[in-house]
Specification:
Radius of gyration: 20 Å
InterPro entries: AB_hydrolase_3, AB_hydrolase_fold, Carboxylest/Gibb_receptor
Structural class: alpha/beta
Largest sheet: 9 strands, mixed
Oligomer: single chain
Strand order of the largest sheet: 4-5-7-6-8-9-10-11-12
Protein name: Alpha/beta hydrolase fold-3 domain-containing protein
Distance between the termini: 51 Å
Order of helices and strands: EEEEEHEHEHHEHEHHEHEHEHH
């Protein structure tokens, strides 16, 4: 066993990197093999290598019960990105297999759970590149399950924590990149998304309730993940408001946990969506919970409520009036960020109402 003195980067609870370059991952979950024979949940699974040169892969989930409902109707397509701080987790692990399987069983959608490369062996932007390759592959319906059962016009992106961050960045890329113009994204689901920045939000200050992460540690995470090439105001981590406001997806669901250190980042993101009017945004807060609580095998009833909300969002076809299942919060917005917002996105009334919520 190596000594504490040999540690080069202490990124617990995710991993420890030693002076000799070796890595000990701490947040692990056992591998679960795929099975095309449906289990108790009625879901069949199989693995696909998307790009042999990088190793980016995916696990596909297909509900046989959904196929019985209407054999002629195509199923929604969900591209799911797992969390884990960009440095841990796998689509093939028990933790994320179980969640994607539940998502498939409850929604009846075809789920593509992406297994992307992790830092520090593969620093950011490797995870984004893999996520994009997987999204392009899923949208092209290159796999027999996708071509036969999935509806590319009814495609959603979903993820928690780092996966929620990936969802945002993939939605931005789909809207701006030349090779994303042929892609149709019905909606996005960001569960406790990992966003950060150099200026503290209220949920990141004066915490005496011992959140899962502390801000001083999170300050070190992004430079570690990017091998020192980017800081905490990197737009991939701290999205500019005008970028969020311009997202063209039809609808979005942003969920946070009330005890989560990054809670107010999610609230801020949903506020930008509401200002922009380009995307119908919905917001949901889980009371008394911390980051990624819904993945805990012993999660309380609040995990079921969150799943119900996510399933409702993914399953319905009509837009509901915008509602915020949370009390308005004070959000710190640097003046320079407000000055960058284009007035073309909002009306004076919208700005007045939103500023009252922000301050």
């Amino acid at each position: 066993m190596k000594l504490e003195a040999e540690i080069a980067n202490d990124m617990r609870p995710f991993l420890v990197q030693y002076m000799d370059g070796s890595i000990m991952r701490l947040a692990t979950s056992p591998f679960v093999p795929p099975s095309e024979v449906p289990g108790k949940t009625g879901v069949a699974t199989r693995d696909v290598v998307i790009d042999p040169s990088t190793g980016v892969s995916a696990r596909l989930f297909l509900s046989v019960d959904a196929l019985r409902w209407d054999k002629k109707k195509k199923l929604p397509l969900i591209v799911y990105y797992h969390g884990g701080g960009f440095c841990s987790g796998s689509a093939f692990s028990k933790l994320f297999h179980r969640y994607a399987e539940s998502l498939c069983a409850r929604t009846g959608a075809v789920v593509v759970s992406v297994d992307y490369r992790l830092a520090p062996e593969y620093p950011i932007p490797a995870a984004y590149d893999d996520a994009w390759a997987a999204l392009r592959w899923a949208a092209s319906l290159s796999d027999p399950w996708l071509s036969e059962y999935a509806d590319p016009e009814h495609m959603f992106l979903a993820g928690e924590s780092a996966g929620g961050n990936i969802v945002h960045n993939m939605a931005v890329r789909a809207a701006t990149a030349p090779d994303g113009q042929d892609m149709s994204i019905e909606g996005i689901v960001l569960m406790q998304p990992f966003f950060w920045g150099s200026e503290r939000q209220p949920s990141e200050m004066d915490r005496d309730d011992r959140p899962l992460f502390v801000p001083e540690w999170v300050d070190t995470l992004w430079p570690f993940l990017t091998a020192g090439t980017a800081g905490n105001d990197d737009p991939r981590l701290n999205p500019p408001p005008e970028l969020v406001m311009a997202l063209p997806c039809r609808r979005a669901l942003i969920t946070v946990a009330s005890k989560d250190l990054v809670r107010d980042r999610g609230y801020q993101y949903s506020t930008w969506l509401r200002l922009g009017k380009q995307c119908h945004g919905e917001f949901f807060e889980s009371k008394g919970e911390d980051h990624a609580f819904h993945l805990n095998p012993w999660a309380k009833a609040s995990a079921g409520k969150l799943m119900d909300r996510v399933v409702d969002f993914l399953s319905r076809t009509k837009l509901y009036p915008i509602t915020y299942d949370a009390k308005p919060r004070r959000i710190i917005v640097p003046k320079i960020r407000l000055q960058r917002i284009s007035p073309n996105f909002i009306t004076p009334r919208d700005l007045s109402m939103s500023m009252r919520a922000l301050v």
